[in-house]
Amino acid sequence: YSREGKKFNPDVHRQHIFGLHVANYMTTLKEENSDLYAKQFSRFVKAGIESSSFEALYKAAHAAIRADPSPSPKKEKKANAAKPKR
Residue 26 has what DSSP assignment? Predict the structure, then answer.
């Protein structure tokens, strides 16, 4: 949706749903400043996520949510016996 033109652009909407705007930024940053890329996307690199695989990653996540939309059970947090003093 463009605020200026007050028009909906389905291509831009699709890019944002599938994270393609982040993939484009990753590609641009990798070409322009590899040190900053390594810093900002270190967890993506560690997990083996490349900018070219974003759409497939999001499609798989959406399919998994549609298959079982119930939230995953949360782990119980242990309460500390002694609270820290301030």
Answer: H
List the structure tokens of 38: 């390594």
**Is 20 in contact with 11 (CB distance < 8 Å)?**
no
| pTM for the full predicted model | 0.69
What is the CA angle 15-17-27, rounded to 5? Answer: 45
Separation between Cα atoms, residue 63 and residue 53, nearest integer Å: 16
Dist CA 50 CA 56 (whole Å): 11
Domain residue ranges in the chain: 10-67
Q: Which residue has the tokens 């967890």?
A: 43
pLDDT at 27: 95
> CB 79: neighbour CB atoms within 10 A?
6
